[in-house]
Amino acid sequence: MAEGPDPVDSMLDLMRRLPPTNVEENVNALIQICPDYADDLLDRATGKDYLACDYNRDGDSYRSPWSNEYDPPIEDGTAPTPKLRKLEIAANEAFDTYRELYYEGGVSSVYLWDLEDGGFAGVVLLKKAMTPTSPDEPSGSWDSIHVFETAERGRQAHYKLTSTVMLELVTKQNNKADETSVLGEPEKRVSEQGWKSSGEITLSGSMTRQTEQDWPVHEPTSHITNTGKMIEEMEMKMRNLLQEVYFGKTRDIVYDLRSVDDLEKARQQRELQKELVGFIKR
Amino acid sequence: MSSEDRVQVAASFILQSPPGEINDVLNDVRVIVDDDAGLEEGILPALREYNIAQFTTVEVPGEHHQTIVSEFARVPGTEEERYLDPRSKTSFVFNHLTLEATDPQSEEPSEAEPQRVALESAALSYLSSHYHDGVATVLAMSTTQFAVQIVSNKYNPSNYWAGRWRSHYEIDLESRTIQGRVLVNVHYYEQGNVQLSTSNDSSISIPAAVSSSSPVSSASKIFALIEAEESRCQTSLNDAYHEMGEKAFKGLRRALPLTRQKIDWDKTMGYKLGAELTASNRAFGAQPR
């Protein structure tokens, strides 16, 4: 594959197009096609398992941020240095509080590792799934993945944050005609028991944003305070974008496909107006 | 992974292509699979499946309108991919890779033609009343059974969005029922990947007075029923968005904590823990204060 376009670019373009709902299966399928590119894909693409693969996996085992133990257990599994582990423990506690305040449930994990040049990097994972208590209630899931790198410059630290949010919402609808239900005009009303419908609406989305910021560092835990503020700000921005801009846009596009109002009537009205204007001018 | 397996995976990607983006997906898949010959041969069944499932439209040879390539329009008893355009009473061979229609032949209409033509004309007038860029076909399955398909596509790649509305109805004048399915897919991908996918199945009974009236009168009443159901389906989408925005979004992640204030991170950290870390090592802090 030395010539032609970069397969990684093609994979990333594909991930931008295929339904976010199937991202896990699709990325797995892609990794099977090109195992050589798995690491590279993991680095830039998104998905909890994949970042977890990279950052808390050793062989077939995963390290728990709470106990620092690998499951299944392994000897000499990769782990942060003792001083970084201390910070990792504190970060997990802080983001657990963050998770409780914003998500009121779900799971969070923070993994830290040392960088070659002396700084360190980390990933903050947050996951929440909502299972409906009745068939009419919507279900959904939220995954956010925040990868950051930091380098200290005197009393300041420079942070580079890449945040990805993946979201899915599903609503089921069931309707049946009864005495009170009205279908448009009275003459279009169908006879009792003459109509029923059932539907499902799935809204899914993924987005990635980056930011670079400098913050003061007074003590080791300043890094948690600083990344905490950055991640809180970022999640707030992305949540608003998804709800206000992205989801609203998808609804508008439906109205670009089909109009509830009669387009033919509107056309006739415009024609009539034109004629009237012409008539007055004469 | 063998080449056949890779083509199989590629086929699954093709079938998930958003509206109007099958060529983009094909281009990506070509680079990834890296076996043009194998892909070209193995991908055809997936392309055929995609075209039929997605109500792919094609300009009818020698006509000024489009028709929908559908399993219902497939001309039976032939090996080739020959499809009927009932409106012009011609059939043509459809190439699922190039999306071209060739070799037109005229076809003899069935005895259901007067009723079919009435439904078709009602369908076209409904189309111009409610669809911005729609294509509709009406096919006679028997003298009393008809299939209606409607598709409306809008592709706007320069503004990163695309949408497709598909409706399928099976009208049975004998059992006086309309079985319908509406599918809507929207993709918005400006600095993100957001997709809406809806499906709605409906079952509507046709009043006895309607099915026994003249073809023209029954056709327009049948489309009044379809119009009411589609408008209801579209309007109910607003309710669903409201529901999802109000309940589900908040249920997953609040806009702000219950206190309506952002987090005080210094407090959250706990001063004790911070102090302990500072005392044990200064490697990550800049200077001791």
From TrEMBL, chain A:
Keywords: Actin capping, Actin-binding, Cytoplasm, Cytoskeleton
Chief place where the protein resides: cytoplasm
SUPFAM superfamilies: Subunits of heterodimeric actin filament capping protein Capz (SSF90096)
Locations listed in the record: Cytoplasm, Cytoskeleton
GO terms assigned for molecular function: actin filament binding
Gene Ontology annotations for the cellular component aspect, listed alphabetically: cytoplasm; F-actin capping protein complex
Pfam families: F_actin_cap_B
Biological processes, Gene Ontology terms: actin cytoskeleton organization; barbed-end actin filament capping; cell morphogenesis
Superkingdom of origin: Eukaryota
Keyword Cell membrane: no
Protein family according to the UniProt entry: Belongs to the F-actin-capping protein beta subunit family.
Function description: F-actin-capping proteins bind in a Ca(2+)-independent manner to the fast growing ends of actin filaments (barbed end) thereby blocking the exchange of subunits at these ends. Unlike other capping proteins (such as gelsolin and severin), these proteins do not sever actin filaments.
Assembly: Heterodimer of an alpha and a beta subunit.
Entry protein name: F-actin-capping protein subunit beta
Source organism (scientific name): Suillus subaureus
Source organism phylogeny: Eukaryota, Fungi, Dikarya, Basidiomycota, Agaricomycotina
From TrEMBL, chain B:
Gene Ontology MF annotations: actin filament binding
Alphabetical UniProt keywords: Actin capping, Actin-binding
GO biological process per UniProt: actin cytoskeleton organization; barbed-end actin filament capping
GO cellular component labels: actin cortical patch; F-actin capping protein complex
InterPro entries per record: CapZ_alpha, CapZ_alpha/beta, CapZ_alpha/beta_2, CapZ_alpha_1
Assembly and oligomerization: Heterodimer of an alpha and a beta subunit.
Family per record: Belongs to the F-actin-capping protein alpha subunit family.
Function field: F-actin-capping proteins bind in a Ca(2+)-independent manner to the fast growing ends of actin filaments (barbed end) thereby blocking the exchange of subunits at these ends. Unlike other capping proteins (such as gelsolin and severin), these proteins do not sever actin filaments.
The protein's name: F-actin-capping protein subunit alpha
Natural source organism: Suillus subaureus
